[in-house]
Structure prediction request, 263 residues.
Amino acid sequence: MDLRKRFNNKHVVITGAAQGIGFEIACHFAREGALLSLLDLNTTILDIAAEKIKQLSPKVYTHYTDISVKEQVEQAVSAAEHLQPIDILINNAGIAFETPFLEIEEKEWQKIMDVNLKGMFLVSQSVCRFMAKRMKGVVVNMSSKNGQDGEFGYAHYNASKAGVIMLTKTMALELAHLNIRVNAVAPGYIQTPLSETIDSPEFTANFVESYIPMNRVGKPQEIAPLFLFLAGEESSFITGQVFVADGGQLAGQKPGQNLTGAL
Ligand SMILES: NC(=O)c1ccc[n+]([C@@H]2O[C@H](COP(=O)([O-])OP(=O)(O)OC[C@H]3O[C@@H](n4cnc5c(N)ncnc54)[C@H](O)[C@@H]3O)[C@@H](O)[C@H]2O)c1
Prediction:
């Protein structure tokens, strides 16, 4: 046991940890001595991810779980809690795809809501019932810049991520007296397998040029530390808040090329 590590022997449950931002969050907690329970529905990449994370910390357990299915969630959370009481929940798993508003089919709307919002609710309720008995716990939810500011072609995704913000605030209100803090992180455009599947390099370059003041996309390594901050003692008086990391996108309109000369 290395007492200098920030999350020494803390039990952290992370959903969607097999790749992208969730994987990076898991690596960051592993370096800080945490015991990890990783939930993901993609068994192949979860096994590969767990092997990599074990090189940073040996205490890594995997639970093959579709977070939108209540029975699977309850089974995984019970197994994790049985291993060691859960201290921290990171609700990261989410999906996105583009559909023009007038063409969204009911099953597409349902799919996004089932994973991004209902799944987060199911995992949170299951974990927080254990935390409530101990009067101790921390939850950090993954929202998005799109939960505060719409994006063309993503009505279902934007609505789900706005829902995450209200879920976060209401959980924070109801669980504060049980000594459970709940906050959310809202990243802007981050380069991950998800964004690479959706967008071509040309689209990404145009998007950056048009909308991101810092003139680049973000990296998962620039998001993970925010989760550790919100899960740790440094944020002990913070609850019900949303932390944006978006390269300045939400600060306001980026000037078009023909306006920059005026500055
Ligand atoms: N990449 C971005 O630009 C960006 C921006 C803002 C917010 N986010 C959010 O961050 C989170 C992670 O995004 P990412 O870009 O790393 O995505 P990703 O697709 O690279 O990784 C998501 C992980 O979640 C898992 N997952 C998906 N559905 C699941 C389910 N039903 N049950 C369990 N696991 C499931 C996937 O298997 C995958 O391992 C998502 O909630 C996403 O909405 C991403």
User: Anything to note?
Assistant: Residues 175 and 209 are 42 Å apart (CA to CA). Residues 15-16, 18-22, 39-42, 65-68, 92-96, 115, 119, 142, 144, 187, 189-190, 192-195 surround nicotinamide-adenine-dinucleotide (CB under 6 Å).
